[in-house]
Design goal:
Blueprint (H helix, E strand, L loop, with lengths): L8 H10 L3 E12 L6 E12 L3 E5 L6 H8 L7 E6 L2 E2 L5 H11 E4 L11 H11 L4 H14 L15 H13 L5 E5 L7 H17 L3 E5 L3 H5 L3 E6 L2 E4 L5
Parallel strand pairs: 3-8, 3-9, 6-7, 7-8
Antiparallel strand pairs: 1-2, 1-4, 4-5, 9-10
Helix pairs in contact: 4-5, 4-6, 5-6
Bound molecules: adenosine-5'-triphosphate and magnesium ion.
């Protein structure tokens, strides 16, 4: 990622040109869990469009389906009905291998419970998406280190997740999601374990990315300051999204 001061004019105008284009769309998105004795309809006929460079917060009560929605948007789960398009590509059209490659190329995902690999250090975890993509360990780790510096955790680079606090793990997960310069970043409660100062530094990093790249963000959050900081706030209720107009 570039510092705003060092971003070349060409990059800026490229980002500006890319902005406005629809990066993420879903139509008639429906997810019914049929695993138990009763069907559970979590999402029903949900519509959403997010433009390049746009940041959307999603709020909703516990169990309303926020994680279910992010999993569908990120191609981690398949809808019962409807479709998800990212950069004009329908995820439905992709088989498992192609979907894995597509996710690595386009999507950064911060899980609600971060899912770092216990056997790897913070640096190795953050570098992993680039290694999967075929970059050398040296190049991947050099880039990962930049991100660890940005999220304020470089001094913990050689520690394994078990030796990190919850907030530190979350920041490693954020670094891992951003390391590939994704087109779309999906975050499930990214500042849930962070103090105000650290949360503010994550917000500043997101601001910079939104300004200097065409990256789109969808952020599930219970944090009112995180929600208020985004371009739009949508509420998930009864399986659908509506504009949230009052402060949460
Ligand atoms: N694999 C599953 N099988 C059956 N029901 C499920 C499954 N996963 C989630 N659910 C149900 O779907 C609903 C939505 O779950 P989800 O995890 O998406 O909620 P959430 O909005 O992310 O909640 P929280 O704020 O607590 O994280 C819940 O009622 C949950 O019990
Ligand atoms: Mg959840």
């Amino acid at each position: 990622m570039n510092d705003p001061a060092t971003v070349k004019e060409g990059d800026m105008s490229q980002a500006a040109n890319a902005k406005g284009r629809i990066m993420l769309a879903c139509h008639d998105l429906t997810r019914i869990y049929r695993e138990g004795p009763q069907d559970v309809t979590v999402l029903e006929g949900l519509e959403l469009e997010v433009r390049a460079g746009e940041r959307v917060a999603i709020v909703g009560s516990s169990g309303s389906g926020k994680t279910t929605l992010l999993n569908l948007l990120g191609g981690l789960d398949r809808p019962t009905r409807g479709e998800v398009l990212i950069a004009d590509e329908s995820l439905l059209d992709l088989g498992e291998t192609a979907l894995g490659r597509f996710r690595n190329r386009h999507i950064g995902f911060v899980y609600q419970f971060h899912h770092l690999l216990a056997e790897f250090t913070a640096l190795e975890n953050a570098a992993l998406p680039l290694i999967v993509r075929g970059q050398s360990k040296k190049a991947a780790e050099s880039r990962a280190r930049e991100l660890l510096i940005r999220v304020g955790i470089a001094e913990r680079a050689d520690h394994k997740p078990g030796e990190l606090s919850g907030g530190e793990r979350q920041r490693v997960a954020i670094a891992r999601a951003l390391v590939t310069d994704p087109s779309l970043v999906l975050m499930d409660e990214p500042t849930g374990n962070l103090d105000q100062t650290t949360a503010a530094s994550i917000l500043a990093l997101m601001d910079e990315l939104a300004r200097t790249t065409a990256c789109a963000f969808v952020i599930v959050t219970h944090d009112p300051s995180m929600a208020a900081h985004q371009d739009r706030v949508l509420k998930l209720d009864d399986g659908r999204l509506t504009e949230q107009l009052e402060p949460i």
